[in-house]
Amino acid sequence: MTIIVNSSAQPAQIRIEGEFTIYTAAESKQQLMDALNEHAAVNVELDAVEEIDTSGVQLLLLVQREAQRLGKTLTLTGASPAVQEVINLLNLAELNAAIDATGEPA
Fold first, then answer.
1. CA angle, residues 29, 68, 96, in degrees to nearest 5
2. pLDDT at position 102 over 60
3. What Cα–Cα distance (Å) separates residue 67 from each residue in 39, 42, 75, 88, 101?
4. Separation in Å, CA 96 to CA 4, 39, 49, 100
5. What is the arithmetic mean of pLDDT over 32-54?
6. Band of the pLDDT at 98, cuts 50, 70, 90?
7. Cα 72 to the chain's mean position, in Å?
8. Of 59, 62, 40, 51, which is closest to residue 86 (Cα–Cα)?
């Protein structure tokens, strides 16, 4: 798993590549929360996520909730087939509303 943060972009760009699972949860959480705390707006790109489990989904929901609590803007874009499959399987309307079928922010 790789998380690439481009802090110079507006909004800040976070690209998650590879595995987004329980095995990478602690590292992922820290990087995502740091980026959210440092920027008023964050875009998380999910098109390169090859594998995601419930821990990855929980992190997305956590970051989404924290952004709302802090009054910050969080956008999720480019859901890979793996991400879309898990979101649909778990029937997570909250995340489905954040990512439309084209992978662009809703």
1. 80
2. no
3. 10, 9, 10, 23, 23
4. 23, 24, 16, 7
5. 93
6. low
7. 14
8. 51
> Tokens in use for 37?
């705390």
Task: Name the DSSP class of 20.
Answer: E
When pLDDT is cut at 50, 70 and 90, the band that residue 81 belongs to is very high
Q: Which one, of 51, 61, 47, 1, lies nearest residue 26 by Cα? A: 1
pLDDT given for residue 105 in this prediction: 42
* Secondary structure class of 14 (helix, strand, coil): strand
CB neighbour class for 8 (10 Å; exposed up to 12, middle 13-18, buried from 19): exposed
Residue with tokens 């507006």, as numbered in its chain: 10
Distances 57 to 27, 78, 79 between C-alpha atoms, Å: 15, 15, 12
